[in-house]
Design a protein that fits this description.
alpha/beta, Arginase, Chain A, 9-stranded mixed sheet, globular, binds zinc ion
Length: 281
């Protein structure tokens, strides 16, 4: 039975980014059913140390974020992702889901904007490389918005494969950063096209053979969200199933990090289903 950690902090709904705090008002209550499963544990996100963040962002950027009221939960957001990734890399967990109060993938070296404060995933993998044997990471980003900060920070890191499913198509010369356009000109095929593209590109992750898989997941592509790609609860569970299968085939752990999405009703409808899928074989 796979061991699943769910990383959460109550500050995410009281001190989270202004546009993100409302979405989690039904949590952790909405997880009541899934938390009854014997292999699912709810864990409180620890606060990341300033030193951990300074390994990625310069001091002046961290000082600016510290002054920003909307970034008050950023330390717990990063801390949860780092703790989850470390537990996965150490074999203490098989799969994890991290709630966040501030986004991460827009945060670049010196800038933070559009609901991101610190780059949670890049900080976490920097930390985990220092304290575990994990070196190679695959990041599958299906948030509806572009992961510009993560791409900037990773630069030409030869041990990270980054695939961003959003609105353009390109691949860097080294083949390690790919953009995949999943927004069709006609919205009607959105979910079908998205799942087809996800299935098409996941073999690249298999070839890369990462030590750990990260799914940067946003529900901002949900049919009811402003950045809609037309996806529904069923499509997210299907996506999760594809990533779970891939991680299992590779014998590697899977980390799911919550990115964008603002509607409370959508969060309550989508997130428990994803955690339930993580808890299944
Ligand atoms: Zn992108």
């Amino acid at each position: 039975m796979k061991q699943v950690g769910v990383f959460y902090h109550p500050a995410f709904k009281t001190q989270g980014y202004l546009t993100l705090r409302g979405r989690l008002q039904d949590f952790p209550g909405a997880l009541e059913g899934v938390l009854q499963r014997p292999n699912v544990r709810l864990l409180e996100c620890p606060r990341a140390s300033r030193e951990m963040i300074l390994k990625v962002h310069p001091r002046e950027m961290v000082a600016m974020a510290d002054l920003e009221d909307e970034c008050r939960s950023a330390y717990e957001s990063v801390g949860g992702v780092a703790a989850a990734m470390e537990a996965l890399a150490q074999g203490e967990l098989d799969r994890a889901f991290c709630f966040t109060g501030a986004g991460g993938h827009h945060a670049g070296l010196r800038e933070f904007w559009d609901s991101s404060c610190f780059n949670d995933v890049v900080i976490a993998l920097t930390h985990v490389r220092e304290v575990t044997a994990a070196r190679r990471f695959a990041i599958i980003d299906t948030d509806a918005t572009h992961a510009g900060g993560t791409l900037q920070l990773l630069g030409e890191d030869p041990e990270v494969l980054h695939i961003c499913f959003c609105r353009s198509n390109y691949c860097t010369a080294d083949g390690l950063a790919l953009e995949v356009n999943v927004y069709p000109s006609s919205g009607s095929r959105g979910p079908q096209l998205f799942l087809e593209k996800l299935q098409k590109y996941l073999p690249k992750v298999r070839e890369f053979r990462p030590d750990l898989l990260v799914w940067y997941f946003g529900f901002n592509s949900h049919v009811d969200e402003p950045a809609s790609l037309g996806l529904t609860e069923t499509d997210y569970v299907a996506s999760c199933g594809l990533l779970v299968s891939l991680a299992d085939d590779l014998g590697r752990p899977l980390l799911v990090v919550l990115g964008g999405g603002v509607i409370r009703r959508v969060a309550a409808a989508v997130i428990p289903g994803i955690i339930k899928r993580l808890s299944e074989d």
